[in-house]
Design brief:
This protein has 147 residues and is α+β, with helices and mostly antiparallel strands. Helix content is 16%, strand content 35%. The chain contains three helices and eight strands; from the N terminus they run ααββββββαββ. Strands 1, 2, 3, 4, 5, 6, 7 and 8 form an eight-stranded mixed beta sheet that branches. Strand 3 and strand 4 form a beta hairpin. The longest helix is centred in the first third of the chain and has 15 residues. It is globular and about 40 Å long.
């Protein structure tokens, strides 16, 4: 059990260490695509919400393809990914209450900050690609992800 918790801790924290990538940095490599707008209801106005967009090769393994930080306004955070090419993607996010841009954990490995995954998947282990993936076509998408 301890190994599972440590694995989850390392996987989730490594995902968010570089989640602050700006849209401008990502646009350099992508020339055309659609937008994905993500709305996240947040119970507390403290901090921000860090959101990462991943493909299958980067999900839970590497830095996001695009990472954004959304301010909490009127109980929700809204971010928009731009220039997303059609394909299969997944999103992970967390409520960065203390503004350190890193997901914080208890000594036993349990997350201190709330988190969420596309398709609103909640499980007792790390999120799985097959559960979190969704398809992006040429039309703009609007998603609501709960924590």
């Amino acid at each position: 059990m301890k190994t599972i918790i440590i694995t989850i801790t390392l996987a989730i924290s490594s995902l968010f260490t570089q989640a602050q990538t700006t849209v401008a940095e990502t646009v350099k490599t992508e020339t055309a695509g659609t937008t994905i707008t993500v709305t996240v209801p947040v119970p507390s106005a403290d901090g921000n919400v860090i959101v990462g967009l991943y493909d299958e090769t980067t999900f839970m393994k590497a830095a996001p393809l695009q990472g954004l930080e959304g301010a909490i306004v009127d109980g929700k955070a809204v971010v928009t990914f731009t220039n997303v090419t059609p394909g299969i993607y997944g999103i992970t996010l967390f409520h960065d209450k203390n503004g350190n841009k890193t997901m914080d954990f208890e000594p036993n490995g349990m997350p201190k900050e709330m988190y969420g995954v596309s398709n609103n998947v909640m499980s007792y282990g790390p999120p799985q690609w097959k559960d979190a993936q969704f398809e992006v076509a040429n039309e703009a998408l609007e998603l609501e992800i709960r924590m």
